[in-house]
Design goal:
The protein is α+β, with helices and mostly antiparallel strands. 55% of the residues lie in helices and 12% in strands. A three-stranded mixed sheet has the order 1-3-2, covered by helices on one side.
């Protein structure tokens, strides 16, 4: 599966962390040329105590157990993967694959953040000399 470039992946994680989850889902959906899923706080019967969030294809909706989950990049990206992988009412993505998908984005964010942090440290050191 094709992924957005690392800078875009990092931006998507940053948007989620900055409480702009809907914008991140729209950006991802535009990249994959699909309709963005709706995201709401709520639960579905049978999943209330076992998961933080669940994707319901028939509604094209991600249900998050509480508003804090809205801002958890791992959970949001994991559920978006399920949205992405549904084809003709048949699910084709595993939990393991959804986890890997989310981790690609998070690792890109970490890598981007490390670059920015190192650049700031170098600037501070340069200014101290």
């Amino acid at each position: 599966m094709e992924l957005p470039d690392p800078k875009t992946q990092a931006l998507i994680v940053k948007l989620i962390l900055n409480k702009r989850t809907e914008k991140s889902l729209q950006l991802l959906s535009n990249f994959y040329k699909i309709q963005a899923p709706e995201i709401v706080v709520g639960t579905i019967k049978g999943k209330r105590k076992t998961v933080y969030a669940v994707y319901v294809h028939s509604q094209r909706r991600i249900y998050a157990t509480n508003s804090e989950i809205f801002y958890n990049p791992f959970v949001i990206l994991h559920e978006f993967y399920h949205h992405l992988r549904y084809r003709g009412m048949e699910h084709r993505g595993s939990e393991k694959s959804a986890d890997k998908f989310a981790l690609y984005f998070i690792n890109s964010y970490r890598s981007q953040y490390d670059k920015v942090s190192q650049s700031r440290i170098n600037t501070i050191r340069k200014n101290q000399n």
